[in-house]
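Section 5: illustrative case.
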């Protein structure tokens, strides 16, 4: 049995990953103890490769030897495993479906769109900016004047999106845009989320993220 497989609850993760941060936030909201295992993504551990043989990616939550992959899937697994603690999805079926829809939109759009902002230049970057702002405006429209995406309750959509706010400084610096100017309602929402201990302890310093992005740009030869 590989090291770590026989532990109670183990999270295979990487510090700057917004996907892993979702899992950390969900576990913190539930008050669940677990072992955090930092992965070297340039030299992935045998445990990671065995636990996620399809995608070979973090995060992976290993629950007494049983691996659960893909961040939103993990968050919902956590919610279902510990249903009596801080529900992350509403009880109403329609509200649950809506939450899953918006979380899925974040999943499919945010990372790819944000990555283009620091990878591309010129006209391609300008097009990426338009796409990114359009996505943020869609999300801002859904948030409206609510405290959280689910109303008064912090939940799945908030967890899906809030890790990317740690990347906003990098997006803005690389692409010369202002998320506050474009989507002013998302800024106080992000602040409210960061006031939660589960979020503040899970998200990295935006300046550290920017240092990481600068490192990636050097790796990819982007100047």
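Designed sequence:
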């Amino acid at each position: 049995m590989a090291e770590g497989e026989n532990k109670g609850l183990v999270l295979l993760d990487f510090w700057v990953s917004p996907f892993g941060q979702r899992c950390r936030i969900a576990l913190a909201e539930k008050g669940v103890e677990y072992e955090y295992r930092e992965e070297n993504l340039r030299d992935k551990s045998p445990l990671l490769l065995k636990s996620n043989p399809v995608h070979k990616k973090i995060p992976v939550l290993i629950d007494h030897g049983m691996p659960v992959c893909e961040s939103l899937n993990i968050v919902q697994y956590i919610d279902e495993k510990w249903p009596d603690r801080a529900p992350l999805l509403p009880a109403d079926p329609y509200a649950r479906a809506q939450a899953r829809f918006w979380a899925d939109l974040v999943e499919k759009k945010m990372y790819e769109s944000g990555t283009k902002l620091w990878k591309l230049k010129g006209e391609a970057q300008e097009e990426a900016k338009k796409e990114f702002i359009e996505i943020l405006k869609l999300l801002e429209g859904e948030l409206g004047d609510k405290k959280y995406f689910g109303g008064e309750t912090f939940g799945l959509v908030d967890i899906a999106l809030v890790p990317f706010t740690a990347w906003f400084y990098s997006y803005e610096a690389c692409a010369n845009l202002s998320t506050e100017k474009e989507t002013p309602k998302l800024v106080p929402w992000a602040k409210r989320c960061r006031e939660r201990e589960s979020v503040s302890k899970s998200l990295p310093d935006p300046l550290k993220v920017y240092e990481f992005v600068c490192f990636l740009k050097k790796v990819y030869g982007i100047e």
